[in-house]
Amino acid sequence: MEIDRYERIFLLATLVFLIGAAIALIVSVVGHHASLPTPSGRVAPEDVTSTPPFDDLGLHETGEGTYDLVMRAQAWQWVLDEEDPTVSEIRIPAGSEVTLIAASTDVVHGLKITETNANVMVIPGHISEVTIDFDDPGEYTMLCHEYCGIGHHNMAARIIVE
Ligand code: CUA
Asked: Which atom of ligand 1 sits closest to the CA of residue 146?
């Protein structure tokens, strides 16, 4: 069977692309440990407030220059302090490594921190975790990037690195 020259070139190009994509996938998974996002744990939305670490919200120093920031996502606020729901900012020294730990008590929220590559979904039933190095002083906004209802645009808090 005679295959047209251009068809042969096209078939060869397709084959080269497929093999290249397969190699890139294997290198990403094996060499760089790329994986699908997975929750770091699970908690039922109705149990969030009574389940550690969410029974003790806020910033906790876990070592020299390392912190956990535990927060609850609920329409339409990042709750950082159980006693005082008006708290919407935390302060940390420059050079800190902060692990944000969040769970939702209601709908799907999204956690994006400006000026960083932190971007995770906060899905009811899942515990979402992301670790960020805050080397440079400045104000970083934690905003909700998943439409969660009429007050979605108000769902923001700040991390002040000083
Ligand atoms: Cu929470 Cu949008």
From this structure: 2
State CA 108 to chain mean position distance.
13
Q: How far apart are CA 52 and CA 43, in angstroms?
A: 10
Q: What spacing in Å lies between the alpha carbon of 12 and ligand 1's midpoint?
A: 47
Ligand 1 first shell, C-beta below 6 A: 76, 109, 144, 146-148, 152, 155
pTM of the model: 0.79
One digit per residue, pLDDT tens: the chain, 162 residues? 888 999 999 999 999 999 999 999 999 989 887 777 777 899 999 999 999 999 999 999 999 999 999 999 999 999 999 999 889 999 999 999 999 999 999 999 999 999 998 899 999 999 999 999 999 999 999 999 999 999 999 999 999 999
Gyration radius from the chain CA atoms: 22
